[in-house]
């Protein structure tokens, strides 16, 4: 290789320059006047500079007056449900699900519904700083296709549920084989199996799920102990809490994440910690459906890795993780007192700790050389961002998703100066409005 070829090889594909970088690395280093060079989708260098030194980068993004940080991780959502935003509110969980959500899903659920709903969700998530989301829904192949087309990352969990009447579980494992082979062509999709909950799946099917997940080395995503009645019913039926039941049947031997975990006993927390189960806290959905508050402080104290999720847009009703973080912090203050969960903690939960909950921290969650270039730049230009004494406090308590200016995933720019580059935003919004009109009829 001659010198010219060598020089060409070292030219970054992308340079992001000018912001304050929150690395979220082990030392939690903050780099002012930062420059990040990206090659082949990965971070090639991070340093502080006076002005861009790699002027030959194929593309340069100006992040001055921004905080640059790892992309946010939405630990639990149902993106296909985004077309049901605001369809049913002000109801408790049981009647919300059985009287409104399951019937409307049965009527309208289809590949097209999920594809468009997921595209709509992805637009909102890119715009508010999410670069990876963990999904659970029907027709998940359509969600995986939307992930692939948009350039975001998704852990796409095909759901399995016997109570809604949408799925026929006798066919599900055959369909799962097909689903897994289709998602192999989507490099930014990680497939998962997403059995709904202890009450949504019969015990004999749970045992098959354990075997299937182990055989295919599949990630497992489920709802866990969202309400007291779920725990009481399980105790009556099996003499165990759902967490203890899943331990008994061997489910926790897999890479599992459990959403909600609102009604936990100390013994449940010990089991989750012992098996390295990631817990997803969904505070806005839990409060909206009146189910309670996840004991995040106790879980973290026991060594459980926690991620933050929005849940679906039908129970939140937006997918803005920075708003969720503000709400989560204030709830933990209410539950535990001031200072037990801090602004810095919640930003870690959104990034590196979230990545640890999914066992993906070797690839993402912090800005370090060699990791995937999944990052966002959050503008500090608005009046609500002046002054900034502590960037973590600003992100946790003041910023919202609307402040996210640029988004990069695996080195590809998904949004620059708030313009989405990978999807036709207008076309998606207009089609989604049309779906809304049809569903409302
Ligand atoms: Zn959920």
Description:
This protein has 2 domains: 3-71 and 368-386 and 393-420, Roll (Urease, subunit C, domain 1); 72-118 and 129-357, TIM Barrel, CATH 3.20.20.140. Helix content is 39%, strand content 22%. It has helices spanning 3-10, 93-108, 111-127, 140-150, 172-183, 203-216, 228-238, 242-249, 266-274, 283-288, 296-301, 321-336, 343-350, 352-357, 391-398, 425-440; strands at residues 14-22, 30-39, 42-48, 60-62, 66-70, 72-77, 130-137, 153-160, 189-195, 219-224, 256-260, 278-281, 306-308, 375-379, 404-409, 412-416, 419-420. Strands 1, 2, 3, 4, 5, 14, 15, 16 and 17 form a 9-stranded mixed beta sheet that branches. Strands 6-7-8-9-10-11-12-13 form an 8-stranded parallel beta sheet. Strand 7, helix 4 and strand 8 form a beta-alpha-beta unit. Helix 13 (343-350) packs across helix 15 (391-398). The radius of gyration is 21 Å and the shape is globular. It starts with a helix and ends with a helix. The chain binds zinc ion.
**CATH topology assignment of the largest domain:** TIM Barrel
- Tell me roughly what share of residues is in helical segments: 25-40%
Which sheet architecture does the biggest sheet show? 9 strands, mixed
| Small-molecule components bound | zinc ion
Secondary structural class:
alpha/beta
Q: Mean of the pLDDT scores?
A: 94
Termini, distance in Å? 66 Å
Structurally, the number of domains stands at 2
CATH class of the largest domain: Alpha Beta
Oligomer description: single chain
Query: What portion of residues belong to β-strands?
Result: 15-25%
Number of strands: 17
């Amino acid at each position: 290789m001659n010198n010219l070829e060598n020089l060409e090889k070292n030219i970054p594909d992308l340079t992001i320059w000018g912001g304050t970088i929150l690395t979220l690395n082990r030392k939690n280093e903050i780099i002012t006047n930062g420059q990040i060079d990206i090659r082949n989708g990965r971070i090639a260098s991070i340093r502080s500079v006076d002005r861009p030194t790699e002027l030959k980068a194929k593309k340069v993004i100006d992040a001055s007056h921004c905080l640059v940080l790892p992309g946010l991780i939405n630990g639990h959502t149902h993106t296909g449900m985004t077309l049901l935003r605001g369809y049913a509110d002000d109801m408790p969980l049981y009647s919300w699900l059985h009287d409104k959500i399951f019937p409307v899903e049965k009527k309208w659920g289809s590949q097209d519904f999920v594809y468009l709903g997921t595209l709509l969700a992805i637009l909102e998530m890119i715009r508010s700083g999410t670069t990876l989301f963990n999904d659970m829904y029907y027709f998940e192949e359509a969600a995986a296709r939307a992930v692939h087309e948009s350039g975001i990352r998704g852990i796409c969990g095909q759901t399995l549920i016997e109570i809604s009447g949408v799925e026929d579980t006798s066919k599900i494992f055959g369909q799962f084989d097909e689903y897994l082979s289709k998602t192999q062509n989507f490099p930014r999709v990680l497939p998962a199996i997403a059995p709904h909950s202890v009450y949504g799946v019969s015990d004999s099917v749970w045992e098959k799920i354990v075997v299937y997940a182990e055989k295919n080395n599949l990630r497992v995503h489920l709802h866990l102990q969202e309400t007291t009645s779920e725990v009481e019913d399980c105790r009556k039926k099996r003499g165990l809490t759902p967490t203890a039941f899943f331990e008994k049947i061997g489910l926790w031997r897999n890479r599992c994440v459990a959403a909600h975990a609102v009604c936990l006993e100390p013994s449940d927390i010990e089991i989750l910690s012992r098996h390295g189960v990631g817990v997803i806290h969904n505070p806005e959905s839990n409060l909206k459906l009146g189910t309670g508050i996840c004991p995040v402080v106790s879980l973290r104290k026991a060594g459980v890795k926690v991620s933050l999720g929005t849940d679906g847009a039908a129970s939140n009703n937006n997918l803005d993780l920075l708003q969720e973080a503000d709400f989560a912090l204030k709830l933990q203050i209410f539950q535990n007192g001031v200072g037990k969960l801090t602004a810095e903690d919640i930003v870690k939960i959104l990034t590196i700790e979230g990545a640890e909950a999914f066992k993906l921290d070797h690839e993402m969650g912090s800005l370090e050389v060699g990791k995937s270039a999944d990052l966002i730049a959050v503008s500090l230009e608005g009046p609500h961002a002046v002054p900034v004494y502590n960037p973590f406090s600003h992100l946790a308590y003041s910023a919202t998703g609307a402040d996210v200016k640029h988004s990069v995933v695996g080195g590809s720019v998904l949004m620059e100066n708030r313009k989405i580059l990978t999807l036709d935003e207008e076309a998606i919004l207009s089609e989604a409005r049309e779906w809304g009109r049809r569903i409302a009829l």
